[in-house]
Every structure is written in C-alpha cells, then in structure tokens.
Design goal:
- The chain is an alpha+beta fold.
- The protein has helices spanning 38-50, 53-60, 79-85, 89-92, 97-100, 102-118, 166-188, 207-212, 226-230, 235-245; strands spanning 7-14, 20-27, 33-35, 64-68, 74-77, 122-131, 134-149, 155-164, 194-197, 202-205.
- The chain folds into three domains: 7-50, no CATH class; 54-166, PAS domain (Beta-Lactamase), CATH 3.30.450; 189-245, Beta-Lactamase (2-Layer Sandwich), CATH 3.30.450.
- The protein contains ten helices and ten strands.
- A five-stranded antiparallel β-sheet has the order 5-4-8-7-6, with helices on both faces. The protein has a three-stranded antiparallel β-sheet with strand order 1-2-3, with helices on one face.
- It is elongated and about 80 Å long.
- The termini are far apart.
C-alpha cells in the first residue's frame, strides 16, 4: 500500500459575522477541510490574547514589571505593580509617570532619562515609599531598570522590575544584629571559641582562641580551617578526640 503524507496547517479566518475562527486543513491527497473543535479554538484564542508564556508569567508574578516608552508612558504593566500603584492596568496604559505620580516623578524621571541617554541599566536601586495600596505605611522597594535597544543600538523603551523587599530586609537586619551581639559576646569572654560548620567545612576561631595558642585572628600562618585545628591536637589524644567528635556510626567515611 502506498504511504500517504498528512499535512496540518493552522490559520485564522472570519465568517460573515466577523467572528474570529480557527481552521485546520487536513490534506489526505484531497482538499477536504474540517473545523477545529470548539475547545481547541477557545484555547487557541486565549493563547493569542495572552501573547506569550512570558507575558502571562509577568502578569501573575509577585514582582512588579512595566515597560515604558521613551516619553515615559506606560506601554505594559502587570497586575501586581498596578495594584501597588493604586490604578488599574487599563488606567496606566498610555499615561505618563508624571501624569499618574506627580510627586514621585521628580525623583524617578531623572533615573529613567539616564537609562535612555546612556543605555546603561540601573541595578538594585532602593527607595522607601508610601503607596496607595498601603497608605500611611512606608515599604522598601528594590528596582532594576534596563534599556530596551533596537538592532542598531537605539534605546526605544525601558523595562522596569520592582520588588517589595521590606520583609527580606527586616530579616537581614535582625540577622546582622544577632551576629553583632554574638561577636560582642565572643570578644568579651576569656574562653577561646572554635566553631566548625560540618556542612560547608568552614571554621571559625575566636580572637581569644587564636591568642591562647599564640596567634592573632588574622595571622596568615593560622588559616581558619579544619586542618589548622586538627593538626594542633596532641598525638596522645588525637584518636579519642576524633572518636568523640566524629562517631563512626554517624560518619562512616571517617
């Protein structure tokens, strides 16, 4: 039996009511045509409206994204950032930053203009701001601005990413404060402290620990390593220390 070649093609067409439809041409050595089932047609139209997987991802992300033209007018903005700004997505489109945020424009317009003029991004800028989404509350936002360039290098717009980092920054500040308190406690004691992170294999020798054995904490002859500590165990006690520190039942590779 001769083999048959089946070719599929997907195209759009309009009927007399101008309703968009999708048609599949099925060639079996003939010109017969069949309409795509309604479920597939709906899926196809939704995919077209969405534009792309990237656009859809940006629309539902918990990070703000918008695209501005060189007149600083909104061409695109996702739901998250629109809500933070206190306007709908539709209310942003076609309007300038200054129209929507006259008070903020004084500070951010020069940054946008710098990106347009130089083509260089602004990375990890930070600002405390009160937004219509949470009136009376100042949150910390981190922003990144990137120039969108044409093939010949002309800046034709700006991609802006904005993230609310208030909670992350608060956690980092607490961690830093705890580290400072720990460091002060270590420096105040007369005990030498040795700390070994068995996951990263990183060592910490307190200044007092280094002093006890005749070094300073930044002495190049005393690297903060496991070997620096293990090599200073007295030979008579080495095996018993290793047994106590690293039980074979728990660490068979030792």
């Amino acid at each position: 039996m001769a083999s048959r070649v089946i070719n599929w093609s997907l195209k759009n067409w309009s009927d007399t009511t101008n309703k968009s439809k999708t048609e599949v041409s099925l060639n079996k050595n003939s010109n017969s045509k069949k309409l795509v089932p309604k479920t597939l047609e709906v899926q196809f139209e939704e995919l077209k409206a969405r534009g792309s997987a990237l656009a859809y991802g940006l629309s539902v992300a918990t990070v703000g994204f918008c695209y501005l033209d060189t007149d600083l007018r909104y061409i695109y903005i996702n739901e998250w950032l629109a809500e933070i700004n206190g306007f709908t997505v539709e209310e942003h489109i076609g309007r300038s930053v200054r129209e929507l945020f006259p008070d903020l424009a004084v500070g951010i317009e020069p940054q946008f203009q710098k990106v347009i003029e130089t083509g260089n991004p602004i990375i990890k800028g930070r600002v405390y701001a009160e937004t219509p989404f949470r009136p009376g509350v100042k949150r910390l936002f981190e922003h990144n601005y990137f120039a969108d360039k044409s093939a010949d290098g002309i800046v034709q717009g700006i991609s802006c990413f904005v993230e609310d980092i208030t909670d992350r920054d608060t956690a980092e500040q607490k961690l830093k404060a705890n580290e400072i308190r720990y460091d002060l406690a270590v420096r105040a004691t007369t005990d030498g402290i040795w700390d070994w992170n068995m996951i990263t294999n990183r060592e910490y020798f307190s200044p007092r620990w280094c002093e006890i054995i005749g070094y300073t904490s930044d002495d190049p002859d005393l690297p903060h390593s496991y070997d620096s500590w293990a090599s200073r165990i007295h030979p008579d006690y080495y095996d018993s220390v290793m047994e106590a520190l690293l039980p074979r039942s728990k660490f068979p590779h030792y």
